[in-house]
What does this fold into?
Amino acid sequence: MSMESIVSLCKRRGFLFQSSEIYGGLQGFWDYGPLGVELKRNVKEAWWSDMVSGHDDMSTLDGAPLPYSMEGLDCTILMHPQVWKCSGHYDLFHDYMVDCRETKKRYRHDQLNGRWVEAKGQKVFVAVAAGDDELEVMTKRALKFFKLRNKNIDDLKWDGDSVCLTSIDDLSQVVGPDAKTVGTLTEPREFNLMFKTYVGALSGEEGAAFMRPETAQGIFVNFKNVLDSTRHRLPLGIAQIGKSFRNEITPRNFTFRSREFEQMEIEFFCHPDQSQDWYRFWRDRRMAWYHQMGIGQERLIMREHAPDELAHYSVGTADIEYAFPFMADGEYGELEGVSHRGDFDLRSHMEGKLDESTKPLAVQLGEDGKPKYRGSGKDLSYRDDLTNEKYVPHVIEPSAGADRAALAFICEAYTEDQQPDEKGKMQTRTVMKFHPRLAPIKAAVLPLVKKDGMPEVAKEIYLDLKKNYKVFYDEKGAVGRRYRRQDEAGTPYCITVDGQTLEDKTVTIRDRDSLEQVRVKIDECEQVIRERMNG
Ligand code: GAP
It folds into this structure.
């Protein structure tokens, strides 16, 4: 299956459109069409229902070390600028970029790979975007740079394997990914990924604010509010779904790396002594969730971060990664990170004072060795009313991207098989095999022909189902073609009203995946669909 076919289906069937397309689009921004918006809503609803509202807080399910509570929150996108100073984002949330003086293009330093190559007495490092067909692209670039033809390919003397540009100290002999000449890349520079804006009529730095780059901080700064208003005891998870913004240097791979995206995050507050158990619990629970929602075992992995990969706040992180079709063979892309954040965030938002116990985790230190920024001055610690123990909770954070999850479900669902058409000729059928909970449309109601009272009966069934489900009515064209359209939309069930319906009040239900058709009474239609969706 190719990424091109998936992208083309997404556009054709209304899953995803480029933002502001009629004006040429805006890089890194995507709109969800009629089918896409339903899919993404279903992803978020399944997550919220399974993790938050439907969570059983009376028992220990799925191997949880203890019963625990879950609550939700919906915070603003713009927050007090001090939030981002104390969280570390103001100083540390950056990537390194290089600019090309010739083409004016900008690249992420760690996303360029290249190889040394020599020809015509000159040795250069040919850089290309890391990813697919690097060697093929590098060869083409090298031939072009040395003004050689394909038949002279053996004149290229490669030296060493492909390496990341970050390992090259002197960029003067580097040929940039789109440049004609050598040495046009600038030295790498820090680039903060937060979008800056101005609040109110103040135009100067006094009014400066940042679009949140993660939903997590809204949860940390409201920890005490949630605790006091709900009177929960720990362990407690607080969940939030919402937009986040990052000014990514090189957004790419469809919605995988966008500049505006939605996150589904849980900050799980627990006793420090139990934090490792909870870390393991959440890694397993989140991995199992993707499997339950239809992602195949062989395409999902859990990868523990090496110490030098950890974010500034993290004591340990495991990524749940999916074999996206745009990744090279054997490579995976991050779907979700599960991090052990220790007490970094709550401490950072507290006093911002340094004492022995906070020292290892304190945010950016100033020249005097004290934290650069002061926290809120509020006490965000927790007192256990049974043991009377007072402590700053540790936090486990399962942080998922709603858009990345939706993209993974699209890629996983995309299937092509061979099926006979009305005349018995084998045709390629494109079918989106979404889990029924995620499918944008749950059922389509189709009168076999547009006469003999069939549309009237079909419309009645449609209006009845519509009260509880997203359903679709279609009476246009041959029924085989209508089935194909529903297969492409990922609709799990097609209900067909035919001649027999008028005699005995039964309809057929066609299953998208097995193509089996069963006959059921009209009155039982909804129950059959409900059972199949849940079963
Ligand atoms: N609060 C922790 C945090 O934000 P992250 O690994 O930077 O951690 C969490 O982001 C998840 O958000 C990622 O696993 C991914 O699913 C999603 N995400 C991050 N950046 C994204 C982007 N530029 N486009 C789409 N999704 C993104």
About this structure: The chain has three domains: 3-76+212-349+389-409, 96-191, 424-534. The CA atoms of residues 75 and 218 lie 6 Å apart.
